[in-house]
Amino acid sequence: MLRKLLARYNSWKLGHKLLAAFVLVSIVPILFVQIVAFQMNRNQMTAKIDELMVNNLTQIAERVDLSLQIYMNLLYQIYRDEQVIDNILKLEDDANSRKAVAYNQVVDCLKQYQNNETGIRCLTVVCPDGAAVVYDFQTDSSLNNVWQGCSDLRQSPPYQDAVGESGMVVTDTMRFEGDRHGRYFHISKRMFDFDHLDRGCIATVIMTIDETVLGDICGSREMEGQSINFIINGERKVIAYPDADFSGITMNPDLDIAGFVRVSGFLRKRSMIINQYEDPVTGWIFCNAYDKEYMLQEVTGTQQIQVMVTVLVLLFASALILYTVHTMDVSVRSVVFGMREVKKGNLDVVVPVRSFDEIGTIADNFNDMTVKVRELIEEVSGAKERQKNAEIQALEAQINPHFLYNTLDSINWMAIEKGEFEISKMLRNLGVILRYSVNKSNQTVTIRELSDWLGKYISLQQMRFDNAFSYESNIDERVYEVRVYKLLLQPFVENAILHGFREMESGGLLRIDISFSKDGRGITVIIEDNGKGMPAEILADYNDRERAVHDDGRGIGLHNAFARISMYYGEEASWNVSSIPGMGTVITLRLPLLLDGNIPARQDDAQGQDGRSRRMAP
User: Fold this and answer.
1) Integer Cα distance of 239 and 232 in angstroms
2) In DSSP terms, which residues pair with 540 in a beta bridge?
3) Which residues have a Cβ under 8 Å from the Cβ of 152 and sit 6 or more positions away?
4) Which alpha helices (H) appear in 198-252, and where do they start and end?
5) For labelling alongside 449, which of 9, 329, 406, 491 has CA 20 to 30 A away?
6) Are 512 and 548 in contact (CB under 8 A)?
7) What is the pLDDT of residues 188-199, one digit of tens each?
C-alpha cells in the first residue's frame, strides 16, 4: 500500500506535490493545534473564573457572618439589659396599671437601639403568656408594626425556632401580611432572669431585619445582566435574591438551580455556570450564576482572530506556493527552449529573466553567455578592420604635449621682442598651469607647490577680469610640506571668480587661509570671497553630503570638487558652505593628513613615538 501511494505521489506534478505536502505538514497540524489550544484556554479560563467566583462567595459569606454577629451583639445587649428584664417581669403582674407602665418602659428601652444599626425593622419581646411588646423603627410606633396581622406571636416562626434553643437563632426570610414588597429575616433569643434562673424563660426577644441588608452585602443586584449572587438554605428556600419577589419562596424540586435562575428571568438562553459555597456558620448556601460566553468573550474573540489570521496566512502561503511553482515551471521551459535554439545555431535568442532566484541566475548567465559568444564571433570577424582603425587613431594621437609648450614658448619670445611683457608673463603662467594640469592630475603636491600654482592661476584671472578683484593668502608655514591632491582647490577658486565676482567691476576680494586643524589631525582650508553669494536652495545642496557629491552633469564645478574630496579622503573629510546673498561666500574644508600611498591618516598616525614627523607621501 505504501509503495502504491508513493508511486502515485511521484506521478503528480511538482505543484501538486508541494501543495499536498504543505496541506499535510502545515495546514492540518496548525488547525489541530489551534483547536486544541482554543479548548484548553477556555477550560483554563473557566476554571480561573470559577475559582474567583468561589472566593468572592466566601468573602460575601464572611461579610454576612460579620453583619449577623453585629446584630447578635445588639440583641445580646437587649438580652442583658436589667431594666428590660425588670419591666418584662412586671408585665406578668396582675395589676393592669403596672402592666401599662411596664409596657411603655419596655418600648422606651427598645427605642434606645434605633440608630445603632441600619436595616432593623422592629424589635419584639414576646412573653410566655402571649403578651408582646413591639417597637417598629420604620413607623416609629409600637402599635402600627409589621406583626399586626399576627394575633399570637407565639405561633410565629422566629418564636417557634427559639423554643428549645439556648443560643440565638436566625430565622430565614419571611413575608408579612399587608407588606407586599417587604422581605425580612429574624434573629431570636430566649430571655432569662439571671437572678432567678429557676423561673425559666421569661420572654423571647425577636429582631426583625430587612432582607435588603443581605442583598446589599451579596451585591446580588443584576450585574449588566451577566452575573448574579443569591442565598438559599439547605431546604432550597431562597434567603436573598436580586428580584425580591423570589425571596422567601422555596424552589421547585423539579428544577435545578440553573433552571430556577432562568425561570426567575435571569440569564435566559445563556450558557450558565453555577458556583456554590456553603457557610459553616449559618448553614446558608451562597450561589453565583454567570454567563460563560460573556466571561470568555475576550478569549473567544482573540482566538477567533488568531484562527482568521492563521487561515489568511495559510491561504497566502498556498497562493505563494502555487505562484512559485508556476513561475519555476515557466522559467525552466524558457531556459530549455533557449538551449535548443542555441543548439540549432541561433545565438540571437534571449531567455526572459522572470525572477532573481537560481533559475533566474541560470537564465541571466545563459543570456550573458550567448552575448559573449556572439561578441567573440563578431570580434574575430572584424579583427583586421579594428586593427587598421587602431593604427590610424594611434597616428592621429601622436601629438606630443611638448609641441604645445614649445609653441607657447615661441610666442612668449616674440612678445618679449615686441616689448609685450604683460603678455609674456601671462604666457609663462599659462604654460606652467597647463604643464601642471595635464601631468598626472590625480597625484599629490605640497601646499607650497599648490600655493605657487594658485598664485599664477589667480594672476591670469586678475588680468582677464582687469583686476576687478584682489587676492590674499594666509598659509601657516607649518603646513607647507603637507601634501594634498593637485587641482583640489582650483574649482572653488574658479567658482568664486566666475560666479562670486560676476558683474563686479572692482572691489572684489578673494582670500585663502590654510592651517592645521585645532586637534592637529588634519588641515583646514578656508576659501572666502565678498561676491554675490549663493541662493539658499543651492547652499542646502552643498551642505548635504549626499547631494553635494552628486554630479549635476554641467562639467567641472563644486559638485565635482566635493565628489573628488569624498573619493580621495572618504568620511575623514568634511566641508561647510556658508553664504549671505550680496555679501559673499565662505567655504571651509577639513582634510585629513596623507601618509605614504596617499592614504588619509590621523595626526597621531603621522607622528613617531619620539615626536618627529614621519615622511609624507612624495
Assistant:
1) 5
2) none
3) 130
4) 212-218
5) 406
6) no
7) 888 887 777 777
- Partner residues linked to 171 by β-bridges: 186
Residue type present at position 157 = P
**Is 370 among the domain residues?**
yes
Encode pLDDT of 395-427 as tens digits.
333 344 444 555 566 666 666 767 767 776 776
How far apart are alpha carbons 74 and 188 in whole angstroms?
A: 12
User: Taking the complete model, does pTM exceed 0.70, yes or no?
Assistant: no
**Is the domain of 202 the same as that of 306?**
no
Residues in CB range of 20: below 8 A, 6 or more apart: 9, 12
242 within some domain: yes
Query: Coil, helix or strand for 478?
Result: helix
Which among 552, 545, 586 is positioned nearest to 569, based on CA atoms?
545
- For residue 432, the number of C-alpha atoms closer than 13 Å in the C-beta half-sphere is 16
Compute the C-alpha angle 488/490/493, nearest 5°: 130
Q: Over the stretch 472-517, which tens digit does the pLDDT of each residue have?
A: 999 999 999 999 988 788 889 988 988 888 888 888 999 999 999 9
Are 244 and 196 contained in the same domain? Answer: yes
Q: Are 550 and 610 in contact (CB under 8 A)?
A: no
DSSP-assigned beta bridge partners for residue 229: 288
SS (HEC) of 284-344: CEEEEEEEHHHHCHHHHHHHHHHHHHHHHHHHHHHHHHHHHHHHHHHHHHHHHHHHHHHHC
Distance CA 316, CA 310 (A): 10
DSSP notation for 454-469: HHHHHHHHHHHTTT-E
CATH number where 537 lies: 3.30.565.10
- Nearest-angstrom CA–CA distance, 468 and 103: 130
What is the DSSP code (8-state) at residue 581? T
Query: Is residue 230 within 8 Å of 240, Cβ to Cβ?
Result: yes
- Note whether 149 and 275 are same-domain residues: yes
**Nearest residue to 508 (alpha-carbon basis) of 431, 427, 585, 397:** 585
- CA–CA separation, 213 and 236 (whole Å): 20
Per the CB < 8 A criterion, the answer to whether 592 and 569 are in contact is: yes
Phi, psi of 135 (to 5 degrees): -125, 120
Q: Could you tell me if 339 and 201 lie in one domain?
A: no
Q: 66: which DSSP letter?
A: H
Q: Is 236 in the same domain as 350?
A: no
Residue 122's H or E segment, with its range, is strand 120-126
Rounded CA separation 525/533 (Å): 19
Q: Taking a C-beta distance cutoff of 8 angstroms, is the pair 505, 468 a contact?
A: yes
Nearest to 559 by CA among 567, 569, 547: 547
Residue 366: domain span: 297-394
The answer to whether residue 29 sits within a structural domain is no
Residues 205 and 285 in one domain: yes
